[in-house]
Amino acid sequence: MYWGLYSGDVANNANPDLGLAVAKKLVKRAVDRNRLKRMVRNLVWAAQSKGLNKDVVVKLKKPIGQQTRGRLRKKEKDFLRSRVAELI
Question: Structure pTM?
Fold first, then answer.
């Protein structure tokens, strides 16, 4: 599993928060790290707008894109998008 998802209850009358952890050690290129963060952020915000009322922390656990020298292929992006959607 590439992603770890942790969630907790929201404090009284507070908006749900999001935490992301994508280590440089796991995804070498800053462009790819930022793209992953943006993708996860959009998925979680969409889930929170549809009724997910929890604080969420998403952490990348395994390196991605090793076969392509750190670059993410479309197939890998689609796979990660589906995995994050399943977690939420």
Answer: 0.75
